[in-house]
Each structure stands twice: as C-alpha cells, then as structure tokens.
Amino acid sequence: MIQLVELTKSYPGQSEPAVDALTLDIPEGEIVVFVGPSGCGKTTTMKLINRLIEPTSGRILLNGADVTGSDPDELRRGIGYAIQQTGLFPHRTVAENIATVPKLLKWGTERVRARVDELLTMVGLDPAEYRGRYPKQLSGGQQQRVGVARALAADPPVLLMDEPFGAIDPLTRETLQNELLRIQREIRKTIVFVTHDIDEAVKIGDRIAIFSEHGRVAQYDTPEKVLSEPADEFVADFIGAGASVKRLSLTRVADAAVATDWPTVQRGEQPRESDREFLLVLDEGRAVEWLPRRDGRGGLPVLNAVGPDHTLYDALNAMLTNNSDVVVVTDAEGTYRGTLDMPAIQDLIHADDTTSVPRRATKGEVR
Ligand SMILES: Nc1ncnc2c1ncn2[C@@H]1O[C@H](COP(=O)(O)OP(=O)(O)OP(=O)(O)O)[C@@H](O)[C@H]1O
C-alpha cells in the first residue's frame, strides 16, 4: 500500500504549489485512478511517488516504510512506470526494450528471454512476430502494449500509468482498457492510473481520486459513490451529464439478471407457439437469427451480441445500434445464454430511485 502524507511540491519560480498537502492512501492490489482537469497536479503526484522529482515537504510510505529518503534508483525498480509517449528506446528492439530493468537487475539471458516472451503473450502480441521489431514498426496501440510489458518486466508490486492510453483511437483504447482489467485480475498489482477521462476512470478504477487544483482531492471514492453521490458541485460538473448512464458501465453482463425464457427454435425445426413477435433461431448453440413468428420468413441476423465481460453500457449501446429493445447474451465462447432487455436496464438505472414515473413497458414485456 502507498500512503501519501501531506505531500507538497512547489516548483521553483511558481507562486502556488503544484501539489498542496496531499494526503491519500492507495490500497494494495487496487487500481486507483487520478482524474481531473489539466494542470491539477496528477503527473506531479505520480513523479513524486517514484521520486522522479523530490517533494518540497511531506512523506511517501510504501508498505509502511518511509521511502522519501531512500535510493531513488532502487525505489524505481520496484515501481513500473508506463506513460503516454511510451518512452520506448527507438533503436532497441521490442525484446530489448522490455528487458531493460531485468538486465539492470542482472538476470540471466535465458530468464530474460522467457520473461520477454511471457509478457508479450500477456499483452496480446505474438512473441515470434514482435520481439525483433523496432518501436517504429508498431502501431500506437502496440507500442502502448510494449510500454505496459516493459513496466511489468521485473514484476514490480506497484505500477504507475500516466495516461497510457491517451493518444489512442477509441476502439483500441477500449481494447487496451479491457486487457488491463484482464491482466490485473491475474497479477493484482497496486496501480495508480492517471487520466483526463471520467469514463475511463469509472471503467478502470476500484477507486477514483478527483483532483480539483493544486493536487487537492475533491472526492476519493468508489466509482459507484462518485457517480451516485458527488461530494460537491465541482465533482458533479466534472462527471458531467449522464451520470446514471455512466453507472451502467459499472455492471458486467455476467453479473446482470439475464432472462433465459426467450422462445428459441433450433435451425431447421418447426417453431413452437409463442406470444413473442420474434423467435430466436439457434444453430449449434449460437443465436443466429431473429425470426418473425407470424410468417416465419424474412429473419434478421443477430448482431452485436454481448458477452460476460461487456458492461450494461455496452448492452444498451448494442440495443440502440440495433434499434431493438433486447440484445442477445452469450458466454465467452459465443454460446447463447439468454437475453437482456431495456426494462431490465431501466430497473438498474432507477434501482434506488423512488420518484420515477411509471414506464410503458414492464419487466419481461417486450414490444
Ligand atoms: N517542471 C515544472 N516546472 C514548473 N512548473 C511545473 C513543472 N511541471 C509542472 N508544473 C506546473 O505544475 C502544475 C501541475 O502540473 P501537472 O503536470 O502535475 O498537472 P496534470 O494534472 O498532470 O496536468 P495534465 O493533465 O495537463 O497532464 C501545473 O500548473 C504546471 O504548469
């Protein structure tokens, strides 16, 4: 666990401190996200944690030990650091880049080679194809993956990530976010993650620290709490409109009440009687077609099914894209598991809401 105690940084020549008496506990094995407007002191705080810069006053404790006076080089070997500009060495191969810290630690050649391949596989790059490439022969997203692999190389207990997915297109960014969450389920590091983007913070964070200015933390809470009970107007403004929709991204489809009573028919078989307008056609366990009940002709392909790792936000998005109020749910292998409908999502949005007006549809009733 990392404890920041009254941490202050005043840069020379600046009238106000960049970080002013920041006190914050970062629990072991969690992802804590620093989010806030430009210039509020997020990067300064990260650099203070790994002693790239020295505090003007205050202390940093790592697992209870004061590291403010320890050897910065030694400290940094226990702290992985991944940044937006990746900082990859352009004239070194992917493998050499990843091996930087293990070589400093004088690991044997075979151990380094095995670790490089293990990490490339972990971040979704085929070692045989990528270990010999140079950074400029990679896409931006691939460079970020290598940056994350390099930060993890010597298995540090702490990982600092400063807008690691900042300059990436939205689709790749989402993939990288999902991969980080998958990797974190295995490695359980203490991760401090900086972003400008509240949606990214909500998705990635076990806790979110919302910085206002000068490293002051306006709220430090779980994403649920930040969205449902913003501490003040600054936080409410920063979250922006649509907090209830954002809350949908906190629930995975795997944890939602998936309905299993949608009428289905096996491909090639005679449909059963049903009160639903459409039947779902299954082929070898997969939902492939919505078949109109009335004449059994002119079926529509099943598009944008959601799996267990998707969020309810993704499910809502799929419904809107399909212009439908129901979406097919599959398991990780793509096998049909059931359906999620709009009323189920509305129920979730309004779970603790006693004032909403009656809706047209009720649960289970699909128009
Ligand atoms: N080396 C420096 N010398 C002087 N002032 C600095 C230096 N680095 C940062 N600052 C100032 O400290 C404040 C905090 O900067 P910091 O980079 O920590 O903010 P940030 O929240 O990470 O911003 P951004 O989201 O734009 O990256 C800013 O006002 C910035 O101008």
Automatic annotation (TrEMBL):
Residues 2-239 form the ABC transporter domain. It comes from the Bacteria. InterPro entries: AAA+_ATPase (IPR003593), ABC_transporter-like_ATP-bd (IPR003439), ABC_transporter-like_CS (IPR017871), CBS_dom_sf (IPR046342), P-loop_NTPase (IPR027417). Pfam families: ABC_tran. The keyword NAD does not apply. The keyword ATP-binding applies. One of its GO terms (molecular function) is ATP binding. PROSITE patterns: ABC_TRANSPORTER_1, ABC_TRANSPORTER_2. PANTHER family: OSMOPROTECTANT IMPORT ATP-BINDING PROTEIN OSMV. Belongs to the ABC transporter superfamily. This is ATP-binding cassette domain-containing protein.
